[in-house]
Amino acid sequence: MGMFALWWLAAPVTSADDLELSEVEVAAQRARLASLGLELMLERQKRVTRVSSALRYRGAALCEPRWSRVLGIVAASAAEIPAAYRDTAYQRYGVDDLVKVLWVLPGYPAAEAGLRAGDTILEIDGRETHFAAALEQSSAEDLPNYTALKIERAGRVRDLQLETRIGCFLPAEVEILDTVDAYTEGTRIAVYSGLLRFLESDAELAVILGHELAHALLDDGLDPADAERDADTLGLYLAARAGYDISVARDLSQRFVREFPLALEARTGHTHLSSPERSRALEATTREIQGKLDRGEPLEPETK
């Protein structure tokens, strides 16, 4: 008989009454778990925003004229927080019907203008807003040189002028779903929390985000195999322009197949099929891009 069995036999008998929690204890446990969940969601969104912002800004030339602002902000109103975390978001960060700044990305216009976590955004370019998504949703035609924010900080209303830094038009957001996938419907890139657990580095995340951004930029009337190939190519260029190590792409594709072999089968309806041919194409594009880097040539694919 092993140690576990001996411990079990020696353990005191626990009655059902001992396992019951009071309403106060249950509420405290729920609050603690909600707090942990909210913090994890925020850390994941910071990561996605950091990588996404670099891809969008450095890849602007490949997206012309499909641009929007890249300000470097993680913010939310209550409507943009999962229902299970709203009470906690209000208690910890004061998130209510207005847009609350939760994090500011160093080196980007929001940080350079002095925006801080805890600020409440009242207006963007003179327009009242209740959705953080409005911060970076704009088109090339209506982008002024500066973005005007009216904020509230410690009970005082202030005006800030943020340099308008342009980049590719699709911001990325985290969705809480235990699925190893990402997608775009044309107005944003959604990254599932299951995918973030699967990825081993920011370089792998950059490859995924570049691929999804490329899908939104390219002709979606292509055959699925052609669409995936073209998105792989343009996506690697976007990731490389942002300074990420794209050599991870081939191994990432192969690891995905090892973990999810159904991705090899077209009949499953999976939109991100993997194959030996795709791995070779990723490797060839990686070599092509590295060659351009070595020769000091612009990182632009042969066809956009």
SSE inventory with pairings:
Elements: H1 3-10, H2 16-19, H3 23-58, H4 60-63, E1 67-69, E2 73-76, H5 86-93, E3 99-104, H6 109-112, E4 120-124, E5 127-128, E6 146-153, E7 156-163, E8 166-168, E9 172-175, E10 182-184, E11 189-192, H7 193-198, H8 202-217, H9 224-241, H10 248-259, H11 276-295
Helix pairs in contact: 3-8, 8-9, 9-11, 10-11
pLDDT < 50 runs, ≥5 residues: 1-9, 266-270
Provide the CATH topology of the largest domain: Pdz3 Domain
Helix and strand content put the structural class at alpha+beta
Topology pattern, helix = H, strand = E? HHHHEEHEHEEEEEEEEHHHHH
CATH superfamily of the largest domain: PDZ domain
User: How big is the Rg?
Assistant: 23 Å
Helix coverage percent: 40-55%
User: How many E strands?
Assistant: 11
Which second-level CATH architecture of the largest domain applies?
Roll
Task: Report the β-strand fraction as a percent range.
Answer: 15-25%
Report how far the terminal alpha carbons are from each other.
67 Å
Which CATH class of the largest domain is shown? Mainly Beta
Largest sheet features: 6 strands, antiparallel
**Tertiary shape:** globular
Number of helices: 11
What is the typical, i.e. mean, pLDDT?
88
Overall tally of structural domains: 2
